[in-house]
Amino acid sequence: MSVALIACGALAREVLALRDKYGWDVEVFGVAALLHNEPNRIPAAVLGTIRDARKSHSHVFVVYGDCGTGGMLDRMLADEGVERVPGPHCYEMYAGSKFEAMTDAEPGTFFLTDYLVQSFDHLVLQGLGLDRHPELREDYFGNYTRVVYLAQREDERLEERARWAASELGLPLEIRTVGYGALETRLCRLMEHANCV
Questions:
Q1: What is the pLDDT of residues 106-115, one digit of tens each?
Q2: C-beta separation of 2 from 56 below 8 A
Q3: Do β-strands 109-112 and 83-84 pair in parallel, antiparallel, or remain unpaired?
Q4: C-alpha separations of 107 from 72, 147, 164, 178 in Å
Q5: What is the three-class DSSP state of 153?
Q6: In 10 A of CB 74, how many CB atoms?
Q7: How does residue 1 score in pLDDT terms, banded at 50, 70 and 90?
Q8: How big is the CA angle at 77 (ends 99 and 127), to the nearest 5 degrees?
Q9: pTM for the whole thing?
Q10: Average pLDDT over residues 109-134
């Protein structure tokens, strides 16, 4: 059986780690995480990757949240007959059942993951133009009240970068080590359901 997992670039490292942990015989294809700044482009990018993967794989699954596509990603996947790991975005996948409580307690929460901590300058500062126009910081982040770093692993270097990212936004930081959370359980369930393990 030839299986392809098409993963958001922000999840690819964790998907590769889970593949290795469970010994899955799958190939992982990444889709650029920078598309989160233009979510309307995500479905077409995922579709192109699905079609490429189908050339050499009999089963294709998508490891992606809706990520702001407003349901367009799921409609395209339904048309293609491709299943994805459930969840609206990676923050909810990592935090699992705790995510809703965190957002209910403080709706103005900006979330970070290992990937976003490592790519903050590129995806947030440059991607939103804050490196060129720091005066936009208040427009983008004025309604946020805190940053919560959902850490996949304990790493002092990443924690220091998270502190730097929060300071760039002028917000207090909370660090919560969540591991792979629901991403792991949902991906395992998908692989088992498809008899791929």
A1: 999 999 999 9
A2: yes
A3: unpaired
A4: 25, 11, 22, 19
A5: coil
A6: 16
A7: low
A8: 60
A9: 0.91
A10: 95
* pLDDT attached to residue 197: 58
End-to-end CA, the chain:
10
Q: Give 132-180 pLDDT, tens digit per residue.
A: 999 999 999 999 999 999 999 999 999 999 999 999 999 999 999 999 9
Burial readout 29-44 (b: 16 or more C-beta within 10 A, e: otherwise): bbbebebbeeeebbbe
Are 33 and 9 in contact by the 8 Å Cβ rule? The answer is yes
For 110-143, the three-class secondary structure string (H helix, E strand, C coil) is EEECHHHHHHHHHHHHHCCCCCCCHHHHHHHHCC
Beta bridge partners of 5: 28, 61
